[in-house]
Design a protein that fits this description.
The protein is α+β, with helices and mostly antiparallel strands. The protein has four helices and three strands, in the order ββααβαα. It has helices spanning 37-47, 52-59, 71-80, 84-97; strands spanning 11-18, 26-33, 60-63. A three-stranded antiparallel beta sheet has the order 1-2-3. Helix 2 packs across helix 3 (71-80) and helix 2 (52-59) packs parallel to helix 4. The chain is globular and about 40 Å long. 16% of the residues are buried.
Length: 103
């Protein structure tokens, strides 16, 4: 078992399953930004006025797609794949809190 560090790494990687109509889900590995409890609470409040793409851009700093991780590409993702923003946020929260995702 790994030793606990009181100051977690500033980023962590996690794979997000994105629903693809008529096919198996696709995975995108994101590099997410760590937030402590207070930072997450403040971010959750700020999210209320954010568009989906803006939320993802604030959650992550990179992904493993060949397309660049920027506003234009993330806007295409959330426009073309309706569940992408919710799946990304759910994965982010489950990684931060250790909560299991529902199957």
């Amino acid at each position: 078992m790994a030793k606990l560090k009181l100051n977690p790494e500033p980023t962590f990687n996690a794979k997000v399953e994105i629903h693809v109509p008529g096919k198996e889900p696709a995975e995108i590995e994101f590099t997410f930004k760590y937030r402590d409890k207070d930072e997450l609470k403040a971010f959750a409040e700020a999210m209320k006025t954010m568009e989906d793409a803006e939320v993802i851009l604030n959650l992550a700093s990179a992904w493993d797609l060949t397309d660049p991780f920027n506003k234009e590409s993330v806007e295409i993702l959330v426009k073309k794949y309706y569940t992408a923003s919710g799946a990304t946020f759910t994965k982010y929260l489950s990684e931060l809190t250790g909560a299991k995702e529902k199957n």
